User: Which sequence fits this backbone?
């Protein structure tokens, strides 16, 4: 084990599972990408979805947005009803790295912006959740990355100092947030890229 680093903390969507609302919505728009993107922009999907990640229930989120944009009510509801279709599977290479890190003696943590409802769906479906020593979900604590308080909670939960931890996320904003609190932050692009960056830091051979 690397003497400096004691823990590696992973994001979930885009790092361990291949999540994108476009996977789900493609069929509703008959793969008309322009129309789908216009819809996602018009409903301000990212901001709306973040409120579920912050702890709002999907029932409340769907009701509120449908009231504002009744012409899209069916499409808005579809995201809740068919949410699993937004995930096309686990990212095998990252799961392999997670297992290797755990086997090498590193503390491995999960820090994700996700609703509790949908997190529970994934936990029942994917075995890799068993490998984590600690898991912290935004909706459970009503905080979102890149708020420094959620990183502090993660560090407290795993009992590690920030400079002992590597943080992996596909979001540049969340990576910057981890960097600001003193973690070594890696923006995920692919399992191969992540493996190389871990090796460059003396983590994994």
Assistant:
């Amino acid at each position: 084990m690397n003497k400096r680093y004691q823990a590696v903390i992973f994001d979930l969507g885009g790092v361990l599972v291949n999540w994108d609302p476009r996977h789900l919505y493609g069929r509703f728009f008959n793969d008309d990408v322009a129309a789908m993107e216009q819809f996602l922009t018009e409903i301000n999907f990212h901001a709306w979805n973040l409120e579920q990640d912050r702890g709002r229930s999907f029932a409340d989120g769907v009701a509120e947005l449908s009231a504002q944009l009744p012409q899209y009510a069916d499409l808005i509801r579809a995201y809740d009803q068919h949410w699993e279709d937004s995930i096309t599977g686990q990212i095998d290479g990252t799961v392999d790295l997670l297992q290797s890190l755990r086997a090498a003696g590193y503390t491995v943590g999960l820090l994700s912006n996700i609703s509790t409802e949908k997190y529970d769906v994934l936990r029942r479906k994917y075995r890799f959740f068993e490998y984590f020593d600690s898991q912290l979900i935004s909706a459970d604590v009503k905080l979102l990355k890149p708020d420094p308080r959620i990183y502090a909670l993660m560090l407290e939960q795993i009992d590690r100092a920030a400079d002992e931890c590597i943080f992996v996320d596909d979001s540049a904003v969340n990576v910057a947030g981890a960097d600001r609190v003193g973690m070594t932050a890696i923006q995920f692009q692919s399992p191969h890229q992540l493996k190389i960056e871990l090796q460059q830091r003396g983590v994994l051979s």
In short: The mean pLDDT is 96. The chain has two domains: 7-16+91-200, 20-86. The longest strand covers residues 107-112. The chain is about 50% helix and 15% strand.
